[in-house]
Write a structure and sequence with these properties.
With 296 residues, the chain is of the alpha/beta class. It is 41% helix and 22% strand. It is built from nine helices and 15 strands. Strands 5-8-2-1-11-13-14-12-15 form a nine-stranded mixed sheet, with helices on both faces. The chain is globular. The termini are far apart.
Amino acid sequence: MKTQRPMTQDWFSTARTLSEALPYLQRYAGAIVVIKFGGNAMGDAAEMASFARDVVLMRQVGVNPVIVHGGGPMINDLLGRLNITSDFVRGKRVTDAATMEVVEMVLSGAVNKRIVQAIQDEGGKAVGLSGKDGGMILCEADDPALGLVGRPVAVNPELLHHLFAGGFVPVIAPLGMGRQGETYNINGDTVAGAIAAALEADRLLLLTDVSGVKNAAGEVVTQLSPAHVRDLTEAGVIAGGMIPKTETALAAIAGGVRAVVILDGRAPNACLLELFTDHGAGSIIRDSEPQIKPQG
């Protein structure tokens, strides 16, 4: 039995927010949303719990979330403790056999299970996988200079559909298998985009550590078309680490994803704000005219 408590403005605000969310809850019922969860946020217990709570809420209201995670900081830590040198070429980790053993141990083991446990601690049902399970991701070598770094050439989403039907949240480590059975390390954004395309997802959410794609004036552009992204890239406005994220977004949209959002995963409830409010979060890329987010 509920205890009667005095009404405050906060309670009214909560009720109003829930009421305003109804059209969005109805809109996303049954939708597939793929979320790329970065490795940096995993080290913070509060951020992990908040993210997991949001994922469980999404599943509770009928959304089918898929989590693809990274784990770079954790891989670096274990490589350092094992005195294994790790080199990078154009921002990608050179992965030899010894490094691959550590990468698989960290991604499919500690990191993957930490996210699964966080979701289950919040009352959800999660299953940890890698792209090797069920023959989900078939890879080819990305670049001989990178060693065992792969790029997806085929994605089989059958296993994921079975998990959706059972009410489970798939949590996927970015690994894949080659034609000869070899294991490949894959960029997490690339895996998220490939899986989203194979599922023809409604949304791909790329959680990062910036507020979104910015124009030359440093303002966040809340809506971009693929053509506008290409123009900003050619002009050098989109540069550095944002380039691979926008490339992933364009490939996903070309592959059948309805829209891709690049947003700041450090912001509280970022995924919920994007999906279930008028305000949204970050930069959405789809066939639309660009708009500038008001500052302040």
